[in-house]
Specification:
alpha/beta; Rossmann fold; seven-stranded parallel β-sheet; globular; binds nicotinamide-adenine-dinucleotide; binds magnesium ion
Length: about 400
C-alpha cells in the first residue's frame, strides 16, 4: 500500500489520481491533498478519502472549510477530521507530509514550484504532471533531486511513453532518475502532438478564434490553461524543454510530430536505429497509474486498445508558421538558464490575459516573444531559487505592461 499526497487534488490530474485511489484501494491511500478555491469538491474528497492533512492555497478559506467539516452529520463525517493548513507554507506541509510515500504534483503553473521543491527536499518520490516547475526551475530542481535522492517519475503522457520505452533498455536503471544526465544510446525523441483545438483551421481562420474554441480539445479532457497551451502548441514546446531536462537529450534530437489520433504517446530512437513507441487510448489515468505503480504494472479492467477499431494512424510535420510558440520554446530552451522561466511565466500570463478577454489568441506568441527578447541581455545561466522567482515575476509584469500599453499587441 502506497500513501500519496496529491497536490492540486481538485484539478484534472488531481481528480484522476483520486479516482485511481478509489479504484485500487488495496494499493493506494490518500494521506494529503491540496487545492485552490473549490471548497465543495474539497469537502467531497475529504469525505471520500479521509486524508490526514488538507492544504488550501487561499488561507482565508480555512475557517469556512473548518466550519463545513464540523457541521457534517456523524454519518458523513470522517472518523478523524484532517489537519487544515493554508497558504504556500500549508502547501509545503502537505507536500512533505511524513506519512506520504509519493507526491503527485498536479498544481498548474509555476505556483507548483515551492510545494514540489518541498516534496523533493523531503526525499519523496515525485509523480510530475506540473511541467511548468521543471521548465522554469530546472537549474534548481535537478540538483535538489540529486541531493535528496527523490525519484522523478514523469506523468505527462509523452514523457511517460519515453520513460516506459526506456525501461526495456540496459540503462533503465538510470532512466528514471531524471537528473538531466544524458541517457546513453538515446539518439532521438519524437514527441507526438494531437495538434490541439485548431489543427483543422487555416492560419487565416485563427483570426476568428474565440475562448470557447481554444478551450475545447479534440482528444484530451484537461484544465483550461493546458488546453489553451495545446491550441497554441506551446504545450508541445514546453514538453520539448521538459524532455530535454528529464532525459538529458539535446534540443536538436527532440522532434515534434503531429499525430491526430493521440494513440502513440511518443517514440524513442535508439543508437541502432530501432524505434520504440508506447501506445494506448488518450487517457491520463494510464500514465498516472504507471507512475504510482512503477516499476510494477497494475492489473486494470480498463478499455483495451484495438488498432483495427482505429484503422489508421497518421503523422505529419507541425506547421511552425501557424504555431510560432513551438519555435519560441525551442529558442528559450536552447538559450537555457533563466530563459525557459521567462518563457513559461510570459505564457502563463498571456494565457490568463487571453482567458480574461484582454488579448486575442494570436497575441499570445507576440507578448511571449517580446518578453523573451527583452530578457536576452539579463539572462543568468545558473540561477538560484530566488533568482528564478524574481525572473518569473518580472516576466509576468512585463506581459501585463505590454497588454496595457502596447497598442500593437491588441489585435482584438
Ligand atoms: P487544472 O486547472 O485542472 O487543476 C489545477 C489544480 O491546481 C487545481 O487543483 C487548482 O486548485 C490548483 N491550483 C491552481 N492554482 C493554484 C495556486 N496558485 N496554488 C495552489 N494550487 C493551485 O490543471 P490540470 O489540467 O490538472 O493540470 C495540472 C498540471 O498537470 C499542469 O502543469 C499541466 O500542464 C499538467 N498536465 C496536465 C494534463 C491533463 O490531462 N490535465 C496532462 C499533462 C500534464
Ligand atoms: Mg503532454
Amino acid at each position: 500500500m502506497k500513501a500519496i499526497s496529491v497536490l492540486g487534488s481538485t484539478g484534472s490530474i488531481g481528480t484522476q489520481t483520486l479516482e485511481i485511489a478509489e479504484e485500487f484501494p488495496e494499493q493506494f491511500r490518500v494521506v494529503a491533498i491540496t487545492a485552490g478555491v473549490n471548497l465543495p469538491l474539497v469537502v467531497k474528497q475529504i469525505k471520500q478519502h479521509n486524508p490526514e492533512v488538507v492544504a488550501l492555497a487561499e488561507k482565508s478559506l480555512l475557517p469556512e472549510l473548518q466550519e463545513t467539516l464540523e457541521s457534517l452529520s456523524s454519518q458523513e463525517r470522517p472518523p478523524k477530521l484532517p489537519t487544515l493548513v493554508g497558504g504556500v507554507e500549508g502547501l509545503k506541509i502537505a507536500a512533505s507530509w511524513e506519512n506520504a510515500d509519493m507526491v503527485v504534483s498536479g498544481i498548474v503553473g509555476c505556483a507548483g514550484l515551492l510545494p514540489t521543491l518541498a516534496a523533493i527536499r523531503s526525499g519523496k518520490d515525485l509523480v510530475l504532471a506540473n511541467k511548468e516547475t521543471l521548465i522554469a526551475a530546472a537549474p534548481v530542481v535537478l540538483p535538489e533531486l540529486k541531493r535528496s535522492g527523490s525519484r522523478l517519475l514523469p506523468a505527462d503522457s509523452e514523457h511517460s511513453a519515453i520513460f516506459q520505452c526506456l525501461q526495456g533498455t540496459p540503462w533503465a536503471e538510470n532512466a528514471h532518475l531524471s537528473t538531466g544526465i544524458p541517457t546513453p544510446g538515446l539518439r532521438r525523441i519524437q514527441l507526438t502532438a494531437s495538434g490541439g483545438a485548431f489543427r483543422d483551421w487555416s492560419a487565416d481562420d485563427l483570426k476568428k478564434a474565440t475562448i470557447a474554441d481554444a478551450t475545447s480539445h479534440p482528444n484530451w479532457s484537461m484544465g483550461r490553461k493546458i488546453t489553451v497551451d495545446s491550441a497554441t502548441l506551446m504545450n508541445k514546446g514546453l514538453e520539448v524543454i521538459e524532455a530535454h531536462y528529464l532525459f538529458g537529450i539535446d534540443y536538436q534530437q527532440i522532434e515534434i510530430v503531429i499525430h491526430p489520433q493521440s494513440i502513440i504517446h511518443s517514440m524513442i530512437e535508439l543508437s541502432d536505429s530501432s524505434v520504440l513507441a508506447q501506445l494506448g487510448w488518450p487517457d491520463m489515468k494510464l500514465p498516472i497509474l504507471y507512475c504510482l505503480s512503477w516499476p510494477n504494472r497494475q492489473e486494470t479492467p480498463w478499455r483495451r486498445l484495438n488498432l483495427t477499431e482505429i484503422g489508421e494512424l497518421t503523422f505529419k510535420s507541425p506547421d511552425t508558421e501557424k504555431y510560432p510558440c513551438m519555435d519560441l520554446a525551442y529558442a528559450a530552451g536552447k538559450a537555457g538558464g533563466t530563459m525557459p522561466a521567462v518563457l513559461n511565466a510570459a505564457n502563463e500570463e498571456a494565457v490568463a490575459e487571453f482567458l480574461r478577454e484582454k488579448i486575442h489568441f494570436l497575441d499570445i506568441p507576440k507578448v511571449i516573444e517580446k518578453t523573451c527578447e527583452k530578457h536576452k541581455n539579463d539572462l543568468k545561466s545558473n540561477p538560484n531559487l530566488d533568482e528564478v522567482i524574481a525572473i518569473d515575476s518580472w516576466s509576468r509584469q512585463n506581459v501585463k505592461e505590454l497588454v496595457s500599453k502596447d497598442k500593437n499587441i491588441l489585435t482584438l
